[in-house]
Every structure is written in C-alpha cells, then in structure tokens.
Amino acid sequence: MYELNDKQLIFVFTGPDGSGRRTIADMVGPSLDMAKVLSYTTRKPRSVEKDGQDYYFVSESQFKQMQDNGEFLESIEYDGHYYGIKESDVASLLEKKGVIYMSLNIEGTRILKDMYQDKVIRIFVYANAETVRKRQEERGTDREEIEKHMSHFEEAMNYKDECEHVFENYDLPQVAYQIQETIEQYLDRNLTESDY
C-alpha cells in the first residue's frame, strides 16, 4: 500500500448517483491545482462520457488481470460492474501534486478512508431523491439503470453523517464555491505547516 507523507491529502467526492458529485469535483479540483485520479470500470460509457477523461473503460478480462496483478489500491463490484483505483496512479499523482481528488461511490470511499484515515477528506454531495432521479433522466440514463441507482439512494444518504463535510447541491456554482473554500482551508493549513 502506498504510504502518504505528512503533506499529502486525498479529497474524495462521494454521495448518491445523480447528486452532481463528479461535476462539482471537476469544477473544484482543477481550480485548486489538484490532480484528478480516474477509476477504471467495466461498465459501458454513457453518451456524455469519454475514456481517459471520466473513467478508464476496460473489459472485464482486463480488469481481472489488473486485479490479479495487485494493481488496484481499492476495487469493488457495484451493480454488476467493477470499479477500481490503481495504486500507481495515486502514487505518481500524489508525488507530482501532493494533493489529489477523485469521485467515488460510498463503498470505494469507505475502503480508502479505512486505509488512509485522516489523510482522506470526504466531501459528501447530495440532492433529494426527486432531483437525483430527474438529473439522471435528463442525462439520458436508461430507466433500468436509474432504478438500480435509486435502490442505493437511502444507503448512500445514511453515509453522510460519517463524512467530514456535507453539501446539498441545490445551486451548482454556489455549492462548488462553498466546497472550494472548504478545501482551501486544508491547503492553506498544509502550506502554513510546511513554512516552519
């Protein structure tokens, strides 16, 4: 397992599917010069997703091969698809930037938090069930997949009290700004500590 040094931090955006966590992560992360760590997944890309930008889309056999080689820091099966974060991606981006961000579901977030404890700061992003359903319909997610996601909604919401920071995504720019301010406090603290 890759060992983080005193200055390195991992910000994980989590919450229910359709909450906007990935959109917000991609607004906030680059503006704070954080490196983005992508998950590998065996699910098919959605119409708006691009390989190497949203996820690395791989076949199940490729995924299993990486798993057998011990390349994943964490990997899970979720609704019949596999997801994983490669340890080498985390290590190289942390060494380059010192601070990374990623968007993970609850299961992946739990695994990383257990591994790295206070080095992982969880940003929980949520919206109410009706809004989440509507957003997924608007992005063209098929009905069956929406129902699968909605079946996990309550379980995801129950996780929010365990997270360091919780934000309701009622207004995208406003919430992104609030999250950016929250993360900046961690980064400022890190800079201040390293000055002495």
Question: What can you see in these coordinates?
Answer:
It contains 8 helices and 9 strands. It is an alpha/beta fold and 196 residues long. The chain has one domain: 3-Layer(aba) Sandwich (Rossmann fold), CATH 3.40.50.300. The strands form 2 sheets. The chain has a 5-stranded parallel sheet with strand order 2-7-1-8-9, with helices on both faces. Strands 4-3-6-5 form a 4-stranded mixed sheet. A hairpin with a 2-residue loop joins β5 and β6. α1 packs across α8. The longest helix has 23 residues. It starts with 8 loop residues before the first strand and ends with a helix.
Show the helix and strand layout:
Elements: E1 9-14, H1 21-31, E2 35-36, E3 40-41, E4 56-57, H2 60-68, E5 72-78, E6 81-86, H3 87-97, E7 99-103, H4 106-116, E8 120-126, H5 129-138, H6 143-151, H7 153-158, E9 165-168, H8 172-194
Parallel strand pairs: 1-7, 1-8, 2-7, 3-4, 8-9
Antiparallel strand pairs: 3-6, 5-6
Helix pairs in contact: 1-8
Q: What is the CATH class designation?
A: Alpha Beta
Indicate the mean pLDDT: 93
Structural class: alpha/beta
Report the C-alpha radius of gyration, rounded: 16 Å
The residue fraction in helices comes out at 40-55%
